[in-house]
Amino acid sequence: MRITKTFAETRTATAGRVGLVPTMGFLHEGHLSLIEAARDGSDTVVMSLFVNPLQFDRDSDLAKYPKDLERDVDLAAAAGADIVFAPEADEMYPGEQLTRVNVNRLSDEMEGPNRPGHFEGVATVVAKLLAGIQPDRSYFGRKDAQQLAIVRRMVSDLSFPGEVLGVPIVREAEGLALSSRNIFLSVEERAAALTLSRGLLAAGDLAEAGERDAGRLIAAVLVEIGTAPDISLEYVTLASQELVQPLDELDRPAFLAVAAWSGGTRLIDNVHFDGDEAGFVADRGSRLKTKSILYGGEG
Ligand code: PAF
């Protein structure tokens, strides 16, 4: 296991098929599942670890983003990473940066208006990682459904070589989608947050039973969230996987996504629907059997 600081050093250290797992650190089992997927399909697995200031719309969120390099390096190595690329800001953004990447239309809905500049920051840093490391495959979590769609589109539109793979959500034992931000939830906020996954999983059951109406799928989520008075909802939307366009009907590969605040913590979650009009399968992700490593201990 090697820690690298520059793109050049990272490229020199790779051999064969290179799998890239971009992260902002403070790893949980969701990240580890990306590393494991990369391990399966690559000769060299590179995990990048960079808390990208460009994608934070609130300075307070950036300032409190949890960091622990030593912990992350140990976890990444145990999950099968060969290299942790942990650049300083100067390597990622040397001098004045005049170039930004925007993926139009796909950024217009859902997270886009709620987090101004976020996807520009994500697309720009991912473009730099792909250009600087030149992976054969890169791995992104389905939890950030819109981000995954945007990265896929950017790679296709800008003709980056290499494939983008989406990996299912990993959930805590009670259903909450894993996020480094979950550590900020109080007991009451966590209980309220669980209504998000409960609602989405109920909508997943409905869709698999043949429900196609977006309004009724969304209503299934709202009913659950309505039982938690302290949740502040931003959106529940059914959108196409390809263009992130809101849908009235589930008639193509799509995802039903929610964003909400529980106390001071913003949470997102979704269920993907794969298939076609003949039948959709809900990707509910997987669930941990034990407590997440986010909370210390062995899990
Ligand atoms: O999903 C994340 O952790 C980040 O958005 C990413 C892809 C590492 C870019 O900074």
Radius of gyration: 19 Å
Sequence stretches where pLDDT stays below 50 over 5 or more residues = none
So what's the CATH class of the largest domain?
Answer: Alpha Beta
Secondary-structure element sequence? EHEHEHHEHHHEHEEHHEEEEE
Total beta strands: 12
User: Number of helical runs?
Assistant: 10
Describe what this molecule looks like in 3D.
The chain has about 300 residues and is of the alpha/beta class. It has two domains: about 1-165, HUPs (Rossmann fold, 3-Layer(aba) Sandwich), CATH 3.40.50.620; about 180-295, Pantoate-beta-alanine ligase, C-terminal domain (Pantoate--beta-alanine Ligase, Chain: A,domain 2). The chain is about 35% helix and about 25% strand. The chain contains ten helices and twelve strands. The strands form three sheets. A six-stranded parallel sheet has the order 1-4-3-2-5-6, with helices on both faces. Strands 8-9-10-11 form a four-stranded antiparallel sheet, covered by helices on one side. A two-stranded parallel sheet has the order 7-12. Helix 7 (about 120-135) crosses helix 8 (about 145-155) and helix 9 packs antiparallel against helix 10. The longest helix has 22 residues, at about 185-210. The radius of gyration is 19 Å and the shape is globular. The structure holds pantoate. Pantoate binds near residues 22, 24, 55, 126 and 144.
Secondary-structure topology with pairs:
Blueprint: E1 2-4, H1 7-13, E2 18-23, H2 29-41, E3 44-49, H3 59-64, H4 69-79, E4 83-85, H5 89-92, H6 111-114, H7 118-133, E5 137-141, H8 145-157, E6 163-167, E7 170-171, H9 187-208, H10 214-225, E8 231-240, E9 254-262, E10 265-276, E11 279-283, E12 286-287
Parallel strand pairs: 1-4, 2-3, 2-5, 3-4, 5-6, 7-12
Antiparallel strand pairs: 8-9, 9-10, 10-11
